[in-house]
UniProtKB/TrEMBL annotation, chain A:
The protein's name: ABC transporter permease
Predominant localisation class: membrane
Domain ABC transmembrane type-1 as annotated: residue spans: 64-252
Alphabetical list of InterPro entries matching this protein: MetI-like, MetI-like_sf
Coiled-coil regions listed in the entry: none
Bilayer disposition of the protein: Multi-pass membrane protein
UniProtKB/TrEMBL annotation, chain B:
A UniProt-annotated Pfam family: ABC_tran
Domain annotation ABC transporter: ranges: 4-234
PROSITE patterns xref list: ABC_TRANSPORTER_1 (PS00211), ABC_TRANSPORTER_2 (PS50893)
Name the UniProt record assigns to this protein: ABC transporter ATP-binding protein
SMART domains tied to this protein: AAA
Listed GO MF terms: ATP binding
Keyword Zinc on entry: no
Keywords: ATP-binding, Nucleotide-binding, Transport
Signal peptide range in chain numbering: none
Originating species: Roseomonas alba
UniProtKB/TrEMBL annotation, chain C:
Source taxon at top rank: Bacteria
InterPro entries tied to this protein: MetI-like, MetI-like_sf
Protein name: ABC transporter permease
Key words, A-Z: Cell membrane, Membrane, Transmembrane, Transmembrane helix, Transport
Organism: Roseomonas alba
Occurrences of domain ABC transmembrane type-1 (ranges): 66-274
Length: 264, 355, 287
């Protein structure tokens, strides 16, 4: 009897947790199709007008362009740096290795907001006040650890004899990298890149202090829109973000495994 | 110290029949081994006895009592797992005491029984260590002590020595046999290692594809395999096809020796097994009853023995294995490829297999 | 390349420069600035050292913001730990064919924009929001419950955002548990309750500790959720920093607040990890 009650209450806790995790996302998507300007739930009539409205908003369009360009630039910058660092880490066997590893993973431990503020102040002291440059540096350093980690995870699975075998077959260092190492760690590189794109595109905490009036990212544009307006166009733009990230999440799960990607 | 009886035990996972109507009995104090390749259902059978897997059909009785519906916790069995499953966050003492604590035994009594068991398995000096501070063999003995301290009705062991190197495994096998004999424990053991099964057991059940192919003493399954599978698993490499003719078995281009009981009509075929070490060779081809002429295809020197692959007149092949003991160890090989020989064996070395 | 091959240090140089230049040095600079006397709009580091910026934290208003931030983070972490362990436990016991799908359902929200997720909660919890509408429609209440812009709302939002991290850490600990261990406890006579409390939970310790540190530090430094869901009364350290830097241009005091945020987070994380390491060192350590 007690066992049954335990089981029932455990079940309800689990089901409740899933509802808790999914409810806000579902609400956003449902509300985005509402025809009325009020946040009626469930909507009485349906329409796509808020999608049209959101897509026409100047601040969202500018924000989306900047966020996209920023994510791609930061991703393309962080990925090669991360790949090289991961290979270096993988190959070094001296004692300072763990210290270096800690340095590389530091951006994971330092809160994004601290990264943003420190960079803002340090760059201001150097009289660098260009928002695009600030954002690029901040985002690149923030997503670097993910690239390093996914590549390290791929490298750890490799048989160390593979490269030696390539060498005995006459492949030089560069060619062995090109034909052996690179194809084998490509899934890790891609996973790190895609994950970095998502993080950069969704980021608020690093960008918060690095944007200026002319250059602002999409999530921050949404936040400032939220401060004076509460119409379903926010739901529409959020739904689009959800759709894109969930699509990428499925891609990541298929190619690399979300659990492996997110766990340390 | 209990009597165990399995009746028509079966387990089905979806469309996969893991175990099919297994019935057997283990007498009090006996050591029974389920032997078979991986996936043959031996571990599933063991887990049904332990109460970790509910059977699809059939019953498990311990001392005549039907325990099929009882959980593992209620059956009072001791189990040693393949991975050992020692609790990594508890010391050796705490691991061994766990089962007694669950039974709410008084602390003083727990301390006494844990100490006496640790002495039996010779681990008393490591009582405060954690499992990962012990060697493989020591961890093995903790697992054994933990299973034995609750004075189980049956001791169940699921390939416990799989991870040990050969030398250590042999030492542990001897130790296990000694302890189960001394404590007069009914034991159920699972392994895929035929040597281990023969060495430890009073009874061996050879399993294949969810069924028991043969149940018998180690000598019976080794010396008189009843099916091709059992013969193969016991290391027999010679299988010949023969045909009955008027009470005589014709195979390999001659009549086989011995008083064999004809089964089936004249002209019906039968498969038979002979261990290679039973096949004795003489130089020269002389066709007499009870012997087969053959040609040597290949001679391979193995150190302590030499094996010859022979071709029989009807095209079947036969292996012979001769020990290289005494003077023969220093002499050159008796035959080489192309030699004509005569092969013979003791009549009781031939085993007719069930198809 | 073959030259680089023999000196992995060169391969790591770009990453080292990036992290040092864009993260470590800026943080050092910021900490230095926090010890300079406050001059509005000034960011040059000077040699005049003072503790004035830190002394302002003794002011009850600022101290209460720090305490509130700690409180919100601790409650968020505690709730996440309980739910996270429960979710990870249920995932662990889910048959393999469903498990992958459910893991994705739990983890995917991590990737969804934090702004979108917070907006979802605003829809649910607002005075004219979905929950109030439903309750009024059902006749349970007449007046809408005031849930938005409270500390409770912030905690709900934070738990939602960070729960997947906890599940992930605990799940990693579950993956390290030999599945035969609960079975062994079962054959030794332990019931499900005892198996969970005496065998499983102690083995989850490292994973729970890792999850607690991640969630706690993320909660301490979260900005979006408190800014959007907390009212003016539910201000936390990060929203205060934003005011100092963007509204009043008091960069020195802002720097001090950031330093305090960083230090508090590191100290608490350090002690959790240390306490856990001490507790599990004996059985986790190798020979």
């Amino acid at each position: 009897m007690i066992g049954l009650m335990q089981r029932v209450s455990f079940r309800s806790l689990i089901i409740g947790s899933y509802i808790f995790l999914l409810a806000p996302l579902i609400c956003v998507v449902v509300v985005s199709f509402n025809a009325e300007p009020v946040q009626q739930f469930p909507p009485r009539s349906w329409s796509l007008r808020w999608y049209a409205h959101a897509l026409q908003l100047e601040s969202f369009r500018n924000g989306a362009v900047i966020s996209f360009a920023l994510a791609v630039a930061a991703g393309l910058l962080a990925t090669p740096i991360g790949v090289l660092a991961a290979i270096g880490l993988h190959r070094s066997h001296w004692r300072g290795k763990s210290a270096l590893e800690a340095i590389f993973l530091a951006p994971l431990i330092v809160p994004g907001i601290v990264t943003g503020i420190s960079l803002l102040i340090a760059l201001a002291a150097l009289d660098v006040r260009e928002a695009p440059l600030r954002l690029l540096l901040g985002h690149t350093v923030a997503i670097l650890p993910y690239s390093i980690r996914t590549v390290l995870a791929s490298l750890a699975r490799l048989d160390p004899a593979l490269e030696e075998a390539a060498e005995t077959l006459g492949a030089s260092g560069l060619r062995s990298f090109r034909y052996i190492l690179l194809p084998l760690i490509r899934p890790g590189i891609l996973a790190g890149l895609v994950f970095g794109l998502i993080l950069s595109f969704d980021d608020v905490s690093v960008s918060l202090f690095l944007v200026d009036a002319r250059t602002t990212t999409l999530p921050l544009a949404i936040m400032s829109y939220l401060e004076y307006s509460f119409d379903p166009s926010i739901a529409a733009i959020s739904s689009m973000l959800i759709a894109v990230t969930l699509g990428l999440a499925v891609l990541l799960e298929r190619s690399f495994g979300l659990k492996r990607l997110l766990a340390g | 110290m209990a009597h165990v009886q399995l009746s028509d035990l079966s387990k089905r996972y979806g469309v996969f029949q893991a175990v099919e109507t297994v019935s057997m009995e283990v007498q009090s104090g006996e050591f029974l081994t389920l032997l078979g390749p991986s996936g043959c259902g031996k571990t599933t059978t063991l887990r049904m006895v332990a109460g970790l897997v509910p059977p699809t059909t059939g019953t498990v009785r311990i001392d005549g009592r039907d325990v099929t519906a009882l959980s593992a916790a209620q059956r009072g069995i001791g189990m040693v797992f393949q991975s050992l499953a020692l609790f990594p966050h508890m010391t050796v003492t705490e691991n061994v005491a766990f089962g007694l604590k669950m039974r709410r035994v008084a602390p003083a009594e727990i301390a006494r029984r844990v100490r006496s068991l640790l002495e039996i398995v010779r681990l008393a000096h490591l009582a405060d260590r954690y499992p990962n501070q012990l060697s493989g063999g020591q961890q093995q003995r903790v697992a054994l002590a933990r299973a034995l301290v609750i004075e189980p009705s049956i001791l169940i062991l699921d390939e416990p020595f799989g991870a040990l190197d050969r030398k250590l495994r042999e030492a542990m096998q001897v130790e296990l046999r000694q302890i189960t004999r001394d404590l007069h424990i009914t034991a159920l053991f699972v392994t895929h290692d035929q040597e281990e099964a023969l060495m430890l057991s009073d009874l061996v059940a050879v399993m294949n594809q969810g069924r028991v192919e043969q149940l018998g003493t180690p000598q019976e399954v080794f010396r008189a395999p009843r099916t091709r599978f059992v013969a193969d698993f016991m290391g027999v490499t010679n299988f010949l096809k023969g045909r009955w003719s008027g009470g005589v078995l014709l195979a390999g281009g001659g009549a086989l020796p011995g008083p064999l009981q004809q089964v089936g009509a004249d002209g019906s075929t039968v498969e038979l097994a002979i261990r290679p070490e039973e096949v004795l060779l003489q130089p020269g081809a002389e066709a007499t009853t009870g012997a087969l002429t053959a040609a040597v295809l290949q001679a391979v020197y193995h150190g302590t023995s030499t094996s010859y692959t022979l071709r029989l007149p009807d095209g079947q092949t036969l292996m012979s294995r001769e020990p290289n003991d005494g003077a023969s160890g220093y002499a050159p090989l008796r035959f080489s490829a192309g030699d004509a020989v005569t092969a013979r064996w003791r009549p009781e070395a031939v085993h007719l297999l069930q198809s | 390349m073959s030259a680089l091959r023999r000196s992995p240090a060169l391969l790591m140089l770009p990453a080292c420069l990036l992290v040092t230049g864009c993260l470590l040095l800026p943080i050092a600079y910021l900490i230095g600035l926090s010890f300079n006397p406050p001059v509005v709009g000034e960011v040059e580091l000077t040699t005049t050292l003072t503790l004035r910026n830190y002394a302002r934290l003794l002011d009850w208003f600022y101290a209460s913001v720090l305490l509130k931030t700690l409180w919100v983070s601790i409650v968020t972490t505690a709730i996440s730990a309980v739910l996270g362990i429960a979710l990870a436990l249920s995932l662990w016991r889910t048959p393999a064919q469903w498990r992958g799908l459910l893991v994705v359902v739990v983890l995917a929200p991590l990737l969804v924009s934090i702004v979108a997720r917070t907006f979802g909660w605003m829809l649910l919890l607002g005075d004219a929001g979905i929950i109030n509408n439903a309750l009024i429609g059902l006749g349970v209440i007449r007046e809408p419950l005031h849930m938005m812009f409270t500390q409770g709302a912030v905690i709900v939002g934070l738990v939602h955002v960070f729960l997947p991290f906890m599940v992930l850490s605990v799940l990693a600990a579950f993956d390290r548990i030999d599945p035969a261990i609960p079975e062994a406890a079962d054959t030794l006579g332990a019931g499900p309750f005892t198996i969970f409390w005496q065998v499983i939970l102690p083995l989850l310790n490292p994973g729970v500790a890792a999850g607690v540190t991640i969630v706690f530090s993320l909660a301490m430094s979260s900005y979006v959720t408190p800014a959007l869901m907390g009212g003016s009364s539910a201000g936390v350290l990060t929203t205060l920093v934003y005011q100092q830097l963007v509204v009043t241009y008091d960069w020195h005091f802002g720097a001090a607040l950031v330093a305090v945020l960083l230090a508090t987070t590191l100290v608490i994380l350090g002690s959790v990890l240390y306490a856990n390491a001490v507790r599990t060192a004996r059985w986790m350590g190798r020979r």
